[in-house]
Amino acid sequence: MIEVTNASKVFRSRRGGAPVNAVVDANLTAQRGEFVAIVGESGSGKSTLARMLLGLIPATSGSITINGINVDQMNAAQRKDYRRTVQAVLQDPSGSLNPRKTVGRTIGEIVRLHSIARGRDEVHAKVLEALELVGLSPAEPFIHRFPQELSGGQRQRVLIARAIVLNPQIIVADEAVSALDASVKAGVLRLMNGLTERLGVGYVFITHDLPVVKKVADRVYVMKDGAIVESGPTRQIFDDPQHPYTQSLLASELVLESVL
């Protein structure tokens, strides 16, 4: 389980400007097999909180723990294990994949780095298995392709394959489907749900796409100006929102749907 307890992140200017409170006293839990969504407008602090969950930036105050271990106080061995336990799938697959590396090399390097398999044949088999799991089948032809030879949906599936090859407990997905068109987005979401059923992986899903959240999330956290202003089961948030900001978000979505 990931547990966030009163975690804040303050960015301070080197030139003496006013500090920016990007995340303010956030409390959140996420565990294996659960689909947790963090929603809010741009600038609400969602992505900063995601980077904190991934251990990429430390909390200014409060704590983030994984199975009781503080992320900011891990030793080298614990941090390496954390990298396997909590993986990331980001918005831009083109920017997350090296255009000079084939799909097989991209995933294979992760397998070797974390000693998931040894020897060329074992690594090759592990890469094929991950690609099959994300629906890139038959997998063999995809191993030799470069990112620019794939569609946007296929590149996103490669990112998911790179994440799940380590058998993580939780994947932090930051706007992971926002750049995809509707049909491709639906396919990737079905894949993510299927991986929860097959592998037990959980998600922290950062997005502004409320229809997606309503369809796939178990629990929702609503962020505004760095603070979590409301949280609860998905049905409760959508059917009976309590905070004025949550109410305005849902009302805006309804107006947009009626216009479209």
Automatic annotation (TrEMBL):
PROSITE patterns: ABC_TRANSPORTER_1 (PS00211), ABC_TRANSPORTER_2 (PS50893). It comes from the Bacteria. InterPro entries: AAA+_ATPase, ABC_transp_ATP-bind, ABC_transporter-like_ATP-bd, ABC_transporter-like_CS, Oligopep_ABC_C, P-loop_NTPase. CDD domains: ABC_NikE_OppD_transporters. The keyword ATP-binding applies. Transmembrane segments: none annotated. Pfam families: ABC_tran (PF00005), oligo_HPY (PF08352). Residues 2-250 form the ABC transporter domain. GO terms for molecular function: ATP binding. Keywords: ATP-binding, Nucleotide-binding, Transport. The keyword Nucleotide-binding applies. This is ABC transporter ATP-binding protein. It comes from Microbacterium terregens. The lineage of its organism: Bacteria, Bacillati, Actinomycetota, Actinomycetes, Micrococcales.
